[in-house]
Amino acid sequence: MKERQRQYLHAMGIQPWEPRYPPASTERAAATDVTPEAPAPQAAAEDKPSSEPSPPVAAVPAPDPAARESPPADTDIPQEYADWAMMVPEDSGNELDFELEPPRPEDRSARIGRMDWGALEAEVKDCNACELHRTRTQAVFGVGQRQAAWMIIGEAPGADEDRLGEPFVGRAGKLLDAMLLALGLRREQIYITNVLKSRPPKNRDPKPEEMQACWPYLQRQIELVGPKILLSVGRIATQTLLRSDLNIGRLRGRVHRFGAAAIPLVATYHPAYLLRSPLQKRKAWEDLQLAYHTFVAAPRRGGDIDS
Ligand code: SF4
User: Fold this and answer.
1) Average pLDDT, stretch 277-301?
2) pLDDT of 227-251, one tens digit each?
3) Is 76 a member of any domain?
4) How far is the CA of 158 from the centre of ligand 1 (A)?
5) In 3-state terms, what secondary structure has residue 248?
6) Is residue 32, in this structure, part of any structural domain at all?
């Protein structure tokens, strides 16, 4: 072993490994020629009854004192042993004294929760986290002012939304626009999206696993927009946001709070339902007025639209 190597080991508190066999080929050959003189181990013979014959004991060559006194040349230490001696502490027992944790897959919700607008939109566009990606034409992300004070959340894209890639279009969308204009709000001043980003076939109700898979996207959208008020339209969106199984008739007409930021949330009927049940429009108008007064009363923040 080179002197420099020995100094490294000493500085690291490692006892260098010193091979004790005679390294030189001539000496090794001389050692094997030594006549076996050593007696068989006594303990092995004494443990046996004297009547039994002792098993043959392999002859052990007596160590050659001359060979012990001659340290091997550096060139006789296999390099892999020298490297190993440099790396393994003396008391390690040749075993790992800690357990390796297998790498855990990153939590999807946590990953989505760190996305900016660009990454989030790209993720939704290519999302296949639930079965709805097989039947949709395209994912419908959301539209409008990304720092809006008002955020409107519906249930899921319908046939027109699936085709055009925008939420609340068609007849229901036109009715929503008219209701907002009555409050002095234009669509481009508001952020509009759905709980589900892909259309359920034949507009069936979303399945729980689909809502669960899509939830992190909406949650991140709400965080990024940071609205002053949420308006949920329809039973599914309202029940999902409020984690409630009450029907929309019980949930509308009052101000709820959403999330850790306690964002005011007002629920109302879906415009598609109002098209089928025009008598409910009066209640929807009351809900919008409640939302408006809640918005006006809430503290101002940067990015608020003028009302
Ligand atoms: S509904 Fe949501 S979770 Fe399902 S595929 Fe579409 S974007 Fe992904």
Assistant:
1) 92
2) 999 999 999 999 999 999 999 999 9
3) no
4) 14
5) helix
6) no
Residue-range definition of the domain harbouring residue 253: 108-297
Residue/partner pairs of 185-190 with CB below 8 Å, 24 or more apart: 185/150, 185/305, 185/307, 187/143, 187/144, 188/144, 188/145, 189/144, 189/145, 189/148, 189/150, 189/305, 190/144, 190/145, 190/148, 190/150, 190/151, 190/152
Q: How many domains does the chain have?
A: 1
User: For residue 133, which atom of ligand 1 is closest to its CA?
Assistant: 5
List the CATH number of the domain containing 160: 3.40.470.10
What's the mean pLDDT when you consider all of the chain? Answer: 79
Centre of ligand 1 from the C-alpha of residue 210, in Å: 7
13 within domain boundaries:
no
Task: Tell whether the model's pLDDT for residue 84 goes beyond 80.
Answer: no
| In a domain? residue 60 | no
Who lines ligand 1 at CB under 6 A?
124, 127-130, 132-133, 139, 196-198, 210, 213-214
Q: Whose CA is nearest to atom 3 of ligand 1?
A: 214
Residue 217 Cα to ligand 1 middle (Å):
9
Measuring from atom 6 of ligand 1, which residue has the nearest CA? 198
**What pLDDT score does 15 carry?**
63
Which stretch of 45-49, 52-56, 101-105, 219-223 has the lowest confidence by average pLDDT? 45-49
Does this model's pTM top 0.70?
no
